[in-house]
TrEMBL record:
Name of the featured protein: Thymidylate kinase
Gene3D superfamilies: P-loop containing nucleotide triphosphate hydrolases
CDD domains in alphabetical order: TMPK (cd01672)
Cellular component, GO, one term: cytosol
Organism: Coemansia brasiliensis
Alphabetical keyword list: ATP-binding, Kinase, Nucleotide biosynthesis, Nucleotide-binding, Transferase
Pathway annotation: Pyrimidine metabolism; dTTP biosynthesis
């Protein structure tokens, strides 16, 4: 039995990551492919609750402390994610270490320092970058409620994402219709699954 794939959605706030990752998991399940949705931050754990308090501006933390909590929130999920991938489940992940680095580096924390706590995490096989200009994102429901949803900051975050892209990333125009984006992403995911079937690639680690 071949392992599952790690499919990641990244992008700026309100770009449609949750909408599309949810739809992709459903479509894969409908096709009889074992799939699971994973979301970061996972606000349900003890660490996740601290992150939620910070994001909703109920509590304050230094930039370094919140950065390390976001990373710890990924590390606490690693054993389960590895077990799932090895048992053939494809993981569709809503945000990951690239968000961690992009947001903290946009706060002017050192880029290399930002990457270091996430070194060794499981690497994604395919990344979909939901690209939207912050001015368009700001027009969507619920925008501006959390601490990072400010125009200049989001522009900087977007630039940081672009600096981390490699050939595993696909840039998706997040301004297109929801169904159209879904079909595009499903097609790319099917191709990635077929490629893995034809020529299996082992689970890789981040930033090595
Ligand atoms: N963060 C996160 C860090 O600083 N470090 C880290 O390590 C991590 C993991 C919370 C914050 O944490 C930061 C980044 C964030 O600022 P979150 O919990 O993922 O991260 O944030 P959420 O608020 O849940 O999600 P987002 O704001 O990122 O939104 P999504 O998931 O990109 O967008 P979605 O799908 O919820 O859609 C937003 C709205 O747009 C509509 C939807 O219906 C919804 O109303 N929409 C569309 N409208 C028109 N056309 C389309 N194609 C649309 N797609 C969606
Ligand atoms: Na989301």
């Amino acid at each position: 039995m071949s392992r599952g794939l790690f499919i990641l959605f990244e992008g700026c706030d309100r770009s449609g990551k949750t909408t599309q990752s949810t739809r992709l998991v459903q479509a894969l399940k409908d096709m009889g492919i074992k799939a699971k949705l994973v979301k970061f931050p996972d606000r349900t754990t003890a660490i996740g609750k601290m992150i939620d308090g910070y994001l909703t501006q109920k509590s304050q933390l230094s930039d370094q402390a919140i950065h390390l909590l976001f990373s710890a929130n990924r590390w606490e999920a690693m054993n389960q994610m590895r077990a799932d991938l090895e048992s053939g489940i494809t993981l569709v992940v809503d945000r990951y270490a690239f968000s961690g680095v992009a947001f903290s580096a946009a706060k002017r924390l050192d880029f290399k320092w930002c990457k270091s706590p996430d070194v060794g995490l499981i690497a994604p096989d395919r990344v979909f970058f939901m690209d939207i200009h912050p001015d368009d994102a700001a027009k969507r429901d619920g925008y501006g409620e959390e601490i990072y949803e400010k125009r200049e900051f989001q522009l900087d975050v977007r630039a940081k994402f672009f600096s981390m892209m490699d050939k595993s990333w696909a840039i998706i125009d997040a301004m297109k219709d929801v169904d159209l984006i879904h079909r595009q992403i499903l097609l790319l995911t099917k191709k990635a699954l077929q490629a893995q079937e034809a020529e299996p690639v082992p689970i890789a680690k981040l930033w090595t």
